[in-house]
């Protein structure tokens, strides 16, 4: 899941070398923390959070195959 988030984020930002993804795995759920450069935050979040919501939707669709709950957090 983390690799999927990383690929999507790197395609969106101007500084792909600063994209960091951290996966925190539990028994039933996975938390994926996405960290990008501060000037790229707007590109990852999008207008009214639409891009962030789309990223979360794609990751949740991929997670349903593994019967896990995934939470994507965009942090600074």
Automatic annotation (TrEMBL):
* Keyword Secreted recorded: no
Single biological process term from Gene Ontology: regulation of cell shape
InterPro entries under this entry? KH_dom-like_a/b (IPR015946), KH_sf_prok-type (IPR009019), KhpA (IPR020627)
Question: What keywords sit in the KW lines?
Answer: Cell shape, Cell wall biogenesis/degradation, Chaperone, Cytoplasm, RNA-binding
Query: Where found?
Result: Cytoplasm
Show the Gene3D superfamilies listed in the entry. 3.30.300.20
| GO cellular component terms attached to this protein's record | cytoplasm
Where it mainly occurs, coarsely classed, is cytoplasm
- Source domain of life is Bacteria
Task: Name the Gene Ontology molecular function terms of this record.
Answer: RNA binding
NCBIfam families in alphabetical order: PRK00468.1, PRK01064.1
- Classification via HAMAP family: KhpA
Q: What does this protein do?
A: A probable RNA chaperone. Forms a complex with KhpB which binds to cellular RNA and controls its expression. Plays a role in peptidoglycan (PG) homeostasis and cell length regulation.
Please report which protein family the annotation says this sequence is part of. Answer: Belongs to the KhpA RNA-binding protein family.
User: What does the subunit section of this Swiss-Prot or TrEMBL entry state?
Assistant: Forms a complex with KhpB.
Question: PANTHER family recorded for this chain?
Answer: RNA-BINDING PROTEIN KHPA (PTHR34654:SF1), UPF0109 PROTEIN SCO5592 (PTHR34654)
Q: List the protein's name.
A: RNA-binding protein KhpA
Provide the species name: Maledivibacter halophilus
């Amino acid at each position: 899941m983390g690799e999927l988030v990383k690929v999507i984020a790197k395609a969106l930002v101007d500084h792909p070398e600063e994209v960091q993804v951290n996966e925190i795995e539990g028994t039933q759920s996975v938390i994926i923390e996405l960290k990008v450069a501060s000037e790229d935050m707007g590109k990852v979040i999008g207008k009214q959070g639409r891009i962030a919501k789309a990223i979360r939707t794609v990751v949740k669709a991929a997670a349903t195959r593994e019967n896990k709950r995934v939470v994507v957090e965009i942090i600074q």
